[in-house]
């Protein structure tokens, strides 16, 4: 398949690149782990996200909420911020700020014993709301004392996670959530009015009703609300085999349509019109053991989403940066369909490069289509990302994209390609026998096979235009730059191949 | 061009892999530089050479030899080992030992003022031989005190550099060199008999006569001699333009024949038969500004040599590991035809991979030809290096090599390819405009384009044999491994592309 | 108080320095933590222990033991070594080997639900012993495959922890432990006869009977036994206040006498005479919240023990290297009476230096007393450690120790002092207000105040003897060296104060 | 000697702390050295200077200025910025900016062959001024292209070094210097008017006349001038023995008076009144082999100067940060009286701490005297530096300083002491025998003995005042802080010594 596009100076395209505002992470207690920190450092060195959001701030492995009995037998709360400080210190050292998710319930503060995940996050309402709001306030005040008020008030705060699922919030009790939300939001504003707080952090199940009712509740109760949050995933129900779940991709347009509805509901209220919506989780599959996550098709699918999600959302947080993650238990193998951009062993997966490429996509949009987005930077150079998304259910195809771009000087075309042949560590891992416990030499091999192929060539100018061609095999993702070249060879130097 | 080879268990091939015994370096004073140390660390991390040899141990920037006048006006020598210790400390920290080259002459100890190179190494005999031998002995005694006698006596010692050229030894005075050699060798053995000492460190000019006369001199004078040293380069006279020199490659066989003659002369003396010959310098071109060094053809040519040089030589020291080098002055650009395996900016050149690949070639040789050498490791796997050497004067060609190897289990073929398309940082540097002073982002791009392409595939066994095919474009170099695979998939895991 | 000692060449003293054979650690799952690894690296860089022993290898946070149901409903065990490899990789990278303690029981393999500690280690026997021995064997076989058989068979193995306490082993059931021991030891030897295995890992409660019965059991049942293990602590029962426990020190001699009895029991069996005894845990207090651990008196007390424990024990493992430790929950403050040699914030406590000093005590013992041990190294220099142990119940005192040592050349005396004034980070932390969450600047201050004071002076020789004086304030610990000086001043250099 | 001072809230003191604006360095070519960069990193990590100034930007080891002959025999200049970029990249990575000193003369551009120093800086005027200004402009333009215009125009530029000495400028030819200054300053402003340029960079010889004449020249010629530069040293003529020079300290007041005269001359011109004066070099001794530099007295003397120099100078650049320095040749020993704050082997000298202490002296000055300067920080705490300067020619003395400070809350007094007993690596080096080539263990010992002694104590409030006492032995330097303490002990925690 060959497609031709002509870019002209009159072209009118818009593109909002919020891809690096936030990234997801496994539960906060795992942020104490060395492997977690090493992977996060790797991600930050290459990509540099601004915020990080994950579960379990108040879960018991963080050890924040404690109780004891005083001499006369009263139960007294006390707070332990030893581990919280370790986590926050390490985040800030890596130049990433928390997007705080308030949850789950400390066991001693919980009204029940229902838990979620292998790591047993308690998902019941607090036994007393006063205990809960005191915990929230004490935590925020501690953070402000340690990191500075002016810094901490800029950390967005989200109340709970997916209360629309009974797995995450007892009975998916909507009124109970609204109560939690209102009391929590007010408690936060009591600490400092400048904090930004939002909800309802729902996923796609019964989402329309939840968003409507939540907005309406805020509207009527005057509960403070600074932004709306929700999640979005791109797959259907999984088929489970052994440790794994296999899923089909949804059409990207389906997912985008779902989000547009949320946008429309919010905008239907005058006082909330244009309010920020943060997609605090998104990915293709929503299970941490879906082989799709490790494949090249995932990279292309996410590129498709990143080209569009900024149209109506302030951020969209890929779930997650790395594979130190225990929701289903500890993975048995390095490639196991985990959410991470980086596999254990410090191996960037194809989707890692989707984000690394979008990092460099800054400038005026000159083209956007279903397989490409191109901007022109201030210095006149072009930067584009292109992909060839081929879902399992579709026939294989290669595509060739031709772009004619206005340009008056001799240029260089730089292309970085991520495809199933040149940048596919999963295949290498499979080909050498799917070792569960790779040696360090094997990990080095995986890393060597996980780097984009880089190529350059000089491009001829024809009538103040240049034409470039990008070949994309099945599920390929590519980044390109076209920039003017002003060669000044050293005295006597003659380049020859 | 397609070539077929069948490997059988009866095959008789020999292959001595001494590629990592020694590596060359610019003058020792440059070892004080941070960029030098960074490049050496990079080389050691990937390749790990055992020894390092370069000029200028006694040149004035090392500041070892000093003189002062005492109260009654006598000139007294004193020695300063401050910089020597810095250099040796850093070498040993990088797990590399010096192959000591004694030279050049400290200005204050010199009999004349003739110098060589931009950095002005004095190449005249000592004003007194007693001053010289005292300097040598004091230096060795200091090293033994600091690093331990048993360690230092294992550092090989070579007397001077290329005395057969008048540029390196005043008038190329053979008798004066023999005197220098004899007195120095005896002085060394006086310090400790266990030291190994050798010469005459000549290059290819009038080499037959020099080797004959030197061996004869040792034979007759009973001068101590533990090994023979000489140099070997693979190019003709250069044509000079501006900062550069352009050269044609010699036939590898020419160079190998030259070295065989040296071997034959040495072996013609009963007492010296089989004595170690160390090629203390070799490369394609012998000038530090020959663009050839940066090209892929260099990698293929050196592979050809490394497959054979061990037949009659104990070591062969590629000249040099890095491009911090000043013989012709300071380079104006990162790619400038320097000798280094690594270009400034920490960019591995194609030839870097030749050595990285030979590092892994350990085992029983099962095949050796003009474009390949293959060994079988103890675990039954095969490891090979193949190349497609196409000199400028020859027509372009691709070759396809088919090897049929005995093997009874399912296998994986791993190939790492270095060719003009996939691993050619010189081309990328040219394509983006030959920047003399690359930014750190440009250097990152060069490094990304300097990595071998890695691929794996499963290989089918047919009648206890497998057949693998390696495609080599012009001047390509490739490393491959064929190893048995015993796949144990995790419960439920189904690999799919 | 002043004490004089004359050392003569005829002096007969013995001293076995096994202080660095093993060090304790919190549960193995904490070895995944970054702060744990950072502290262990700090300890290894300064002290370098050979082995490390801690609880929780099989506890659920290590995630090794898993079960699933197959199609026909049978429960099948499967093993997950992902985290085990991370821990072992990191240990070996820090050049420390595990002293494997087999325990506690994975929840799914347990026969009951009794747990110990905040982190809930299950202390019940296995539901089936076959399940247990399969787990042990699978784990050892995995380790051998990853790290090499010849390496892993040298890792000592201890069966369970303190089965003589009902808190650690259900009902402190002696016969059940013997069964566990026998089956486990045999299962280990089935994997490889070269493994060394031992028990009963008891503490001081009813220890005489337990040791006797255990030895007797092995004697009669022919259960394999390569070494005996037990624990030793130097404090009485604690008084508890809030998060803390306060204890009095026992006389060191009491503790040593207790260990001598164990030695005597073992030696009373001909086949076990002289068998290695490993004290797999020792410290002053046995609770992780005893302020004693952070004080200077602890350093002096441990020095006293290290001077003697090697007399009848192959090793004695200080419990523990660092303060990432959760037995009583997560500590609320950096100084909290934790076991660690290093406090959170990377602050070496006084006892850290006890081990750092014993590291350098290699040579022939020339003096040992209740406050000193001195050796002469091969080069003739002396190295000593001295202390002034003043328990809370004793009157304060300073002591001055004079040693007259045979020496014929001018000497230098080097002293490193750790006392309550010069090396007492606990006091600095207290003086600045006992901050629970120190800033990085405060941690830097604590570290600066946690370094020994270093002093040197020239010592005069009088009749082939020198006399040195070491002043020790209350609970001071000092290391000294006396070594010959051969001053060679640089030309013209005149030292002046 | 005891001195009492009462601080009141009404006290009027001024203190300008410009101690960290600039630091000196050996010639720029040495900035390529690893040891140089390691030392600079150490200094920046602790102290963090803003600018760095040294000689030799245009000297031949930087290799910037080159010439060649074209086809018709004309000599053409070309510039090589390879090494300059390495140096500037490394400076900026260490967050330090150059204070550019333009000099010395490249050999090929020089009008004569007179040189200065062991490293042979050419000190003659250019053979053509056009060649010189082209070199200056090309260099600045290159820097602007690489590091950004807006960045580089903030790098101050000084023309030449000490032209009032014939050693540094042929014949100390004043008119020739004025010509150089004027043409250079104009050439700089031609590149970008925003550059700040200054001179005459003189030392104390005939300084009054030089300053007057220079100012007058600028006044009359309208030569651009943005600041005045000069040097200041605190010692008399040296007595030379072997490799060393021994000197007596001048009274600090002498030196300060000298600088006041310069200030007065500048201020006597209306258009120059209040113009910045940069002391681009200062120290006690002006020779790089004066043992004084390594002693504690140097630290006290420099503290005395830093307390006052900001009164009339915009900066004062200590000469130099480290001991990688070759003006007199390469040092034979680690302690050799070099200028550096850090001795080779990464050993901070006492004067290192003078700067580390002044770094923290920010706030409102509440006391300044001949032995102390104290500020009150915004949070109400006090920070002071005190010293006890005892020159060789004076009798020994200890002093005790008592300060009564207004304060209403319980306080902690923190003191960091640097004196001849507790922080004197020179003495330790001497005591162990003055080793010329220390082992790494010896260097570790020197570093351990080069750290300030840290102590804390609680201070009692009496009538809203506290009184603190600082004891200073001979040549001691101390930093103290007095800050309020608000102790919140953990539940149950009872601090005991």
From TrEMBL, chains A, B, C, D:
Coiled-coil segments on the chain, per record: none
Family matches, as InterPro entries: GH, GH39_cat, Glyco_hydro_39, Glycosyl_Hydrolase_39
Hydrolase found in the keyword field: yes
Domain of life: Bacteria
Pfam families: Glyco_hydro_39
UniProt record similarity statement: Belongs to the glycosyl hydrolase 39 family.
Protein name as annotated: Beta-xylosidase
Lineage of origin: Bacteria, Bacillati, Bacillota, Clostridia, Eubacteriales
Gene: xynB2_2
